[in-house]
Amino acid sequence: MWHEERHTRIRDLLRASGKVSVERIVTELGVSRETIRRDLVELADRGEIRRVHGGAVLADDEPPIDVRHATRVREKRAIARKVSSLVESGQTVFMDAGSTMTLVAEALSARSGLTIVTNSVDVATRFAARPDNEVRLLGGRFDARIGCTHGSATIAEIARYQAHLAILSPVGIDAAAGASSFELEEAEIARAMCANARSIMIAADHAKVGVRSRVAWCPADRIDVLVTDRRAEKSRAIAAIAGIVGAIEYA
């Protein structure tokens, strides 16, 4: 991975989470601890980040969750529109939680005849406003930070459904690891949705392409469609992914 590409990925991680450990950056980028330490020193010298024990934070205060939804919005909206064009009326669709999924839900809410099964309050709210779409909000342990449910009760409810399609957004998508997330709870939800869906669609912007996060939940050869933005075409990782997933759609 090139020097400037690593810096971009580190910035993206910090914008998404506010604070990131060295261990997480090493896992996400797949490079050595020494390389990451040098990168953090350089970014800190520029005033872009502030180094703390075990990792780094943004130079400003840690952003609230609303700030995460403001990251790469143009790319995510384009991805959302492309996803919407690939979904057919009458389908039952799993959707997980996250900023990309919120925008996908917004785009899909203009469609009709869909049944959406989700653990995300944001996703459910956007569909509930339209009466000709059915919404099933999964129960379970509620995480107020993200606005979603997770845990064994949520997974048990997912198993009750046989969906036509699962639309999911990982932390990273990589040819070797497939789709992966940093949080175990998020990965377990995504894995359960994959297991109970006929087709799997991954929505991931260019910053997630080539990233391998901590918990893998869907092999690349199980992914039917990867929807990403045009900037991903410049990534060296996309060629390897293209040889494994069913199809890639660019927004």
From TrEMBL:
<dbReference type="InterPro" id="IPR036390">
    <property type="entry name" value="WH_DNA-bd_sf"/>
</dbReference>
<keyword id="KW-0678">Repressor</keyword>
<dbReference type="InterPro" id="IPR037171">
    <property type="entry name" value="NagB/RpiA_transferase-like"/>
</dbReference>
<dbReference type="InterPro" id="IPR014036">
    <property type="entry name" value="DeoR-like_C"/>
</dbReference>
<dbReference type="Pfam" id="PF00455">
    <property type="entry name" value="DeoRC"/>
</dbReference>
<feature type="domain" description="HTH deoR-type">
    <location>
        <begin position="3"/>
        <end position="58"/>
    </location>
</feature>
<dbReference type="GO" id="GO:0003677">
    <property type="term" value="F:DNA binding"/>
</dbReference>
<keyword id="KW-0805">Transcription regulation</keyword>
<dbReference type="InterPro" id="IPR050313">
    <property type="entry name" value="Carb_Metab_HTH_regulators"/>
</dbReference>
<dbReference type="InterPro" id="IPR001034">
    <property type="entry name" value="DeoR_HTH"/>
</dbReference>
<dbReference type="Pfam" id="PF08220">
    <property type="entry name" value="HTH_DeoR"/>
</dbReference>
<dbReference type="InterPro" id="IPR018356">
    <property type="entry name" value="Tscrpt_reg_HTH_DeoR_CS"/>
</dbReference>
<dbReference type="InterPro" id="IPR036388">
    <property type="entry name" value="WH-like_DNA-bd_sf"/>
</dbReference>
<dbReference type="GO" id="GO:0003700">
    <property type="term" value="F:DNA-binding transcription factor activity"/>
</dbReference>
<protein>
    <submittedName>
        <fullName>DeoR/GlpR transcriptional regulator</fullName>
    </submittedName>
</protein>
<keyword id="KW-0804">Transcription</keyword>
<keyword id="KW-0238">DNA-binding</keyword>
